[in-house]
Amino acid sequence: MPELRRLMEGIVTYERGSDFRLTDKELLRRGFGKHPEFGAFVADRGGGRLVGMAVHYEIPFMHTLEPLLMMKWLFVDTEHRGGGVGRRLMRRMACHALETGHGKFCWFVLKDNAPARAFYRSVGATPDPDWDRWMLGPDAIAAMAQG
């Protein structure tokens, strides 16, 4: 758990996130408990050290009445990038998609993450032509809730 949490914190930091609160105990409960909320494929260097992860979850159903497979995070430690770890994790995600009957899987990429975009293109991925992510932040939620 500590190594998976370390990788998760690594990508959150890389993505300029803050307030990382996930603990080993919470990670164990949410990912490996009675009702797992996510799955993870990991790249193990040996000696108890992970060097990469692909974390995924399902949106239970869509308009097709089939679930949508989402990749939450793909992350490889900086010193192990360029060695095929990310490609192997993406291959494992593709196999998982096939094994679980998903015709596709999706993920988000920061707009300024050119290396990730180039990597994803190199494995045959394309940006979704139809969708951009939108959000309501705390102030907008409060204003909307008040009418």
From TrEMBL:
UniProt KW keywords: Acyltransferase, Transferase
InterPro entries the record matches: Acyl_CoA_acyltransferase (IPR016181), Diverse_Substrate_AcTransf (IPR051016), GNAT_dom (IPR000182)
Organism: Siccirubricoccus soli
PANTHER family: DIAMINE N-ACETYLTRANSFERASE, GH14572P-RELATED
Gene3D superfamilies: 3.40.630.30
Domain N-acetyltransferase: 1-147
SUPFAM superfamilies in alphabetical order: Acyl-CoA N-acyltransferases (Nat)
Signal peptide: none
Protein name as it appears in the record: GNAT family N-acetyltransferase
